[in-house]
Amino acid sequence: MNTVDLSTLELVPNFPGLRVSFPFHSGTGTAASAAVYFEVDAGAFLPTHTDSSEELLLVLEGEGEASLEDETIPLATGQMAAIPAMAPHGIRNVGDDVLRVIGFFAGSTVVHTFPDTPEGAMIFVTGAPVPIAAPLEEPAPAHA
To answer: If both were cysteines, with which of 4, 61, 69, 120 could 23 make a disulfide (CB 3.0 to 4.6 Å apart)?
Structure first.
């Protein structure tokens, strides 16, 4: 059994005011799920993006606003939200303290697509590389 202490996770700065860690995914041994833990500073936000897998968000601390397509909903400590796969979504910290959120994905390898960041479009893959078809090779010439 893998276990994680959220207080000792190594958080990686991802976007301004945002720190993130993916403690569970296919690369760490999970077969059908993944998890993300992130912290958002007051006034900062996780930009709009899509995930290749359904995600459940649980607010551990703080106050935020989650956007899902054209809808914005408030989220506070102890509240959850379900995000369908490939639905554009993001979250903004509207409180005075750090917003702490954990998300659970219904897949162990997740592709995250951020279409509009200051650096341009970005794609991240969490977990082991997704197997893709190999390019076709030219057939060997026939010998007479």
So the answer is: 4
